[in-house]
Here is the input.
Amino acid sequence: MSRIFETTASDDENAIGIAGGEVQAHGYRYAVPEIGRYNLTADSCPLRFSAVALDRSAEPPVLVTAEYMTDLTGRVARWPIDLASTRLVENGGTVFASDAAIAGQTRIQGAVTYENVYYLSCSSQTSQWGRLYRNVPDSMSEITAWPDGPEDLYVERDLKLIWTAAEHPNKRVTLGIPMQGY
Here is the structure.
């Protein structure tokens, strides 16, 4: 996030990139550039990366990824990361998830773990509002009301808040609520 920057033009929702000395990002005021990527191998599970977050409470810290699916087959995977190098931990040139699970919820827009609690931000399933699910493995999820169009999650550790940003035009809010663990 240290490379986030303000665009020079943010009024054209169809433009992206640099042209004529202006930087466009689909109408957004700020952008985060892609500075690297990992690729799945032919032997990898075909994960569809829809969300990513960082869990610094895990040892070692992990990146938490989730799949957006309209059925219950979306998965959450956790990948060990070396914070000093900012790279995923490799074993023989390959990165392996430290764990993965079927999420059991639909339309996952964001996921994070903190102190072994899973938090899943999901867009509308029965009405316009989203839901925030809290869960520990092998237990029932607890549900919190969540804004319309929720996205990725961020944990503010010092204040024990969990944050999301909503994506819908004219409904874009940034919301933080107290974490409720188990």
The longest strand covers residues 75-82. The mean pLDDT is 89. The CA atoms of residues 131 and 154 lie 15 Å apart. DSSP finds no helices and 16 strands in the chain.
